[in-house]
Each structure stands twice: as structure tokens, then as C-alpha cells.
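README: folding subset

This subset contains proteins for which both the sequence and a predicted C-alpha cell string are available. Records are stored as plain text. Below is the entry for Extracellular solute-binding protein (516 residues), shown exactly as it appears on disk.
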Amino acid sequence: MLRMKWMLLLILVAALPVGWFVYTRWLPATPPASKPHLTVLLKMGDAFRSQNNPYIAKLTEELGIDLEIMTVPASSYNERLDVLMASGRAPDIVQINWAGEENLPGWVRNGLIMPIQLDRAPNIDLNVTPSLLSMMKVGGNDQVYGVPGVTTSFPYGVIVRKDWLERLELPEPRTREDFERVMEAFVTQDPDGNGKADTYGITSWRLNEFGGVFGGSFKTDYLWNSLHPDASESANVVQLREQQGGYPALLDFARKAYANRWLDPDFLSLSRPEQKFILGKIGLIGAYTYETVQLEKELQAFVPGAKLEWLLGPSDDEGRIWNFVPESYGYNGAGSMMGSNAVFAITKNAPYNTALAFLDKMNTREMIQLSNLGVKGIHYDSFDPNRSILSRTEAQNAAVKRDLFGISDTFRGESLARLGDNAIENERLEYYRKKGQMLITNPISYSMGFAPETVRFSMTHPAYAEQTKNGELQVVVGSLSLSQLQENIKRDSLGARADLIKSVRARYTQLLNMQK
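--- output ---
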């Protein structure tokens, strides 16, 4: 009897796993937790692919979301965005090419754009400067309604033929007087050694590059035409470019440069002065730091052994070097076609917590670097984070253009990845960039686009800007007196532009107050 009990017990125990297996086999499987879904509308180039994109797959893995990227051709992006916003069918996050975007206030008032809760977005608060965030406030509302992407700001200065300086035993110029001596030597002392008087000091398209180099030495902003107080006046009043105290002196200097052949006589007709510069007959050209190495390579195709150096523009009479460029924002990564005015806004349709977390995470150092690099083996071979040296094959460069996008490409002023696998060139360009950023005087400057009145004025007076340009060019070549141009400017300031001047000053004050 005891044996039978034990046998029955063994049979039951042996049967338990089978019964348990049979039972659990037919239980309905527990569905995996679904990832939050997010749709993002971006303005990208035609080469970009949103399907089967390994970078997007990596992002979804890193962020734990199901990310759907929607793109519209650049040529029709703004129109498509307007239609989507008006219809109430906008994606969760939209890119706005915003420089005084007049639709944004209306979208905010109608509840189509949600505020960015900065107290829940520590990375945005850390990486995006208060001055950039202030531009995303609407009216008297103290809330921020968009996240400007942060991008590298490259200093503007002057590229000089270093081999000419060495041949003529000239030191690098610092002051305006130094530059005058250098340009005079480039014109009169045959720096290319061909025995002909066929060289010039500086080339320019109209006064663009020339004004970019020399405007700061007169404390005036010619290149960017930005919104800032007049640096040459003690009253600290915002002035339009033609009314700034240093503007007449800059034109007078340009006239002197043209008469002495320091300024390339073709400056009126050139559309791309760098193409003339690389022919080897010009000593100086206004340029950003990152243009130096490429221009040198192109120049050496015509002049073997030529050497270039990037310098700061000349100082003013007190020894200060000015830079009036507004803060850069947007996304200018390797594969991006998004342009420098990229702002990202959360629409009313979004799962707000997911959208805010996405924008915040994309402003971390790690995600900015990922959006610059992509996936190793697919988008790059190697990256040295200590020297910011990135190595890519041609096939990987093509993959970058197809796959990568980002929200910002700079973390707290740090450019996390640069293109190119030449360590010497990268370190040279980084030296120039730091040199420019460390030694310049930056007044608080905004793009004129942030004053909607200037946009409206240009639309209602389309010929005004061209007439002003033509007037100053006539002064430079001697067909119009400087006094007559000043008289014209004074008349316009009392007439058509009187209201514009008041509006611009009020807007600047408003932008400053928004930062507080």
C-alpha cells in the first residue's frame, strides 16, 4: 500500500511540469510596452531619407521613443507648414525658420503652439543662452514658445597673403594704419615678383567684404546690419546703419582705398570675390575663420607655395576690435539643409511630456555629438574627442547627407565634431576660431529680422535698400559727394523711415527686457 502511495505521488509530481507547460503555453502573451510616438516636421534637403534610416533607428533606441520624421521640400516648406498649422493637423514638433516670424504670435494666441516649460528642461536651460530664448517670447508673455538650435559662431576677420608679408618683410597688421601700409606695399612693391603693377590690396563684392573688415575700426556695423546701440556715440541709442556715427568715415576711407588701388577696381562687378582672390593678384579678403584652409588650397592651384593667415580686423582708435554679429542659432550640421534660423516648437497636438523630453535630450552633449557623428561604421570610421578629429570615407559622407539631422550642433559654445581627417588643418582652424572669439568686443546685437517693422518696410519700399547701396558706391568711386549722400539720408530719416527708426529702438528695448 505504501509503495502504491509513493508511486501515485511520483506520477503526480512528474505530471505537474507537463500540466503547467501545457497551461502556460496557451496563455495569451503579454504585449510589450509601447514606446511613446512622436512626429517631427523638418526642412531637409531632397537627399534626406526618413525611412530605413540607421541614425533614426539609433535615436529611437537611445531615447526610448518611436520617432517619425516628416520632411517637406525646402522650396515649399513654409507654405506647407502654414497649411498644416491652419488645418489643426500639424505634427507634434515643427521647425520654424524664424527671424521675426510674424505667424508665431498668432499661432501662440490661438493655442496652436505650447510653451516650453524650462523648469522641466534642464538641458535646454543649460545649453541655450537666455538671449536666444528671449527671442522666443511673444508680446508681454514671459513664457518661451520655441527652442532655438545652438550652432557654432565663426568669427569674421580678414585673410592675408602671408607669403607676401614674408617676401616684403612686413609684420602682421593690427591697426587700421598697419593695414594701410600693408595694402600700399601690396600695390606698389610687386609682391608676386612678376615685374608688373597688377596686384591690389583687398577685393570685395561691392562694399560687403571691405566693410566687414574695416567697419569695426570705425565702430560701425556694415556686414550684418544688426540691431544694436551705436558704438561711436555716448548716448547708447540704437541707430540704423546709415545713421551710425562711423558710417560716413567708413565711406570716406573706402573712397581713399579705391583712389589708391588698395580696393580692387572690379569691386563693383564681382559677385564672388573669392574667385578673383584665388587667382593670386589680391593680398586681402574678408572671410570667416573656416574659409582659410580651403581658400589656401584653391589659391595654391594657381600659386604653388602660397600661404594664407586669418587675422582679426583692424582695431578702432582705442585699440578695441568690434564684432557686431548677432548670436548664431539653428542647425548647420554636415548633412543638414535646415539653415541657420532653425527653431523647434511643440504644437497643441503633441504628447507634451514626450515632446519636451525629446527637445531637452537633444540638447545634451551626448545627443549633439551623436547627431554630428551618426553611427560608427555607417557614418564615420573614427573620432578623436580630445582633438575633434573625425574621419569619414566618401561613402560615409554620402550617408551623412542622407541620414543625419539634429536640433543643435554646439554644446555651450563647444563644437563637438568637425569634418575632415587632417589633424593639422583642424587644429589650425580651431586656433583661428578661438582667436576670433577671445579678442573681440561684442555689443548685444540682434538680427534686424527680429524687428518686424524692418521686414514690412523692405516690402513696402523695395527700392530703398538698392538706392542706398548705389548712393554709397557712387561716393566711393567719386561720382557723388559724401555730403550729398548724408543729406539724402537725413531727408529719409525725417520722412519714410522716421516711424521705422522709432519702432526699431522700441523693439531693441523690448528684446533686452525679455532677457531679464
